[in-house]
Write a structure and sequence with these properties.
Blueprint (H helix, E strand, L loop, with lengths): L2 H8 L5 E7 L4 H12 L2 H4 L3 E6 L4 H10 L5 E5 L28 H4 L6 E5 L3 E3 L4 H5 L7 E5 L11 H12 L9 E9 H18 L7 H9 L3 E4 L7 H4 L4 H4 L3 E3 L16 H13 L21 H24 L6
Parallel strand pairs: 1-2, 1-4, 2-3, 6-8
Antiparallel strand pairs: 4-7, 5-9, 6-7
Helix pairs in contact: 8-9
Length: 334
């Protein structure tokens, strides 16, 4: 066997990129999530990890590259011109940063060798194996994504569901359980190339109706062309509130909403997770100018008896729906 054959057998080009996009405000939480993958050899044999940087000058870029040298995280600068829909668009007031649109431009900055993309929001926390997610291959023209918790609210009385019925209908989505959360998804690079401009243009034209920014536009494009990811891999606050962690065994927690474990006034998340962010921030004290602002954890404010009863009834209904969904749905993988 000659030397070229030996090298060919021992070296396998990785074709999958795990990608994050962050601005300075979400840097440290993104680094913690990315490090959980990049520091695990069983994952780095399968994928390469990238963090796309929005709004960082060259000094900060160099500092990050030096600080994480040899830790299997690659940093890619991303320009707003790669993804920004423009200043004329309406942006619903939200905790979601404008840089979230960067996930629509990953193909513009990733090296050409990567034909498969797995995207994660920075406010995710890895708690179980990701091997099935990282090795899965999505069909061309499709996206792999998990349901948003919205379908659990279907048919409930009140302004929230009424507002979202109109929202779904506007974007051509006639089933609440057909609407996905874009905090974790996978697709082929060619699919993103084909869809990106359409999605950004859709937001430009319908920004006033896109309550959830690019997620709204992503759903409008991919409705009917989605492979169903188990909520285990995008376990948002809406699922966590059902107190089904033991039954559902999530692999990725997603801190949707404003109650982040590193910056919250409500003790929603376990102290062990809050401590993980504090410890990571202390470990990388060099990044203190961009530090996580962990506030004093305070108990939730009390609610009225009537509201508490209503919440209990809704929670019971949602738990039953979630139980049935987890046991009866044919996911792309478990």
């Amino acid at each position: 066997m000659d030397r070229k054959q030996t090298i060919g057998q021992s070296f396998r080009v990785k074709d999958t990129a795990v990608c994050y996009v962050t601005d300075p405000g979400f840097l440290l939480c993104t680094l913690l999530s990315a490090s959980s993958i990049a520091e695990d050899s069983k994952y780095t044999e399968l994928v390469d990890v990238f963090i796309c940087l929005v709004g960082f000058d060259e000094l900060w870029q160099d500092k990050l590259k030096a600080l994480f040298y040899g830790k299997n995280i690659q940093f890619l600068p991303m320009k707003a011109t790669d993804y920004d829909p423009g200043s004329d668009c309406y942006f619903e007031p939200s905790h979601v940063p404008r840089s979230a649109f960067g996930r629509l431009a990953l193909h513009r900055v990733l090296p050409d060798v990567y034909s498969n993309i797995v995207y994660l929001d920075g406010d995710t926390y890895i708690v179980d194996s990701l091997e099935s997610l990282l090795t899965y291959r999505v069909k061309p023209g499709h996206i792999l994504a998990a349901n948003d918790f919205l379908w659990l609210c279907e048919g409930e009385r009140g302004a929230f569901w009424e507002k979202h019925v109109d929202y779904l209908n506007y974007h051509g989505i006639d089933r609440a359980d057909g609407y996905f959360n874009s905090g974790v998804f996978a697709l082929k690079r060619e699919t993103l190339v084909e869809s990106s401009d359409w999605i950004i243009n859709y937001f430009r034209e319908h920004s006033g109706a896109c309550l959830y920014y690019d997620q709204s536009a992503l759903n409008a494009y991919f409705y009917g062309h989605r492979e169903i990811l188990s909520p285990r891999y995008n376990y948002s606050l809406g699922f966590y509130d059902l107190d089904r962690m033991e039954a559902d065994q999530p692999a990725i927690l997603h801190f949707t909403g404003g109650e982040k474990p590193w910056k919250t006034k409500a003790s929603v998340w376990p102290q062990s997770i809050i401590n993980a962010y504090i410890e990571f921030s202390e470990k990388y004290a060099e990044l203190s100018p961009l530090g996580l602002n962990s506030n004093v954890i305070q108990p939730k404010s009390s609610t009225s008896t009537v509201r508490s009863i209503l919440q209990s009834i809704r929670r019971h209904k949602r738990r039953k729906l979630m139980h049935n969904y987890m046991n009866e749905t044919e996911f792309a993988f478990q």
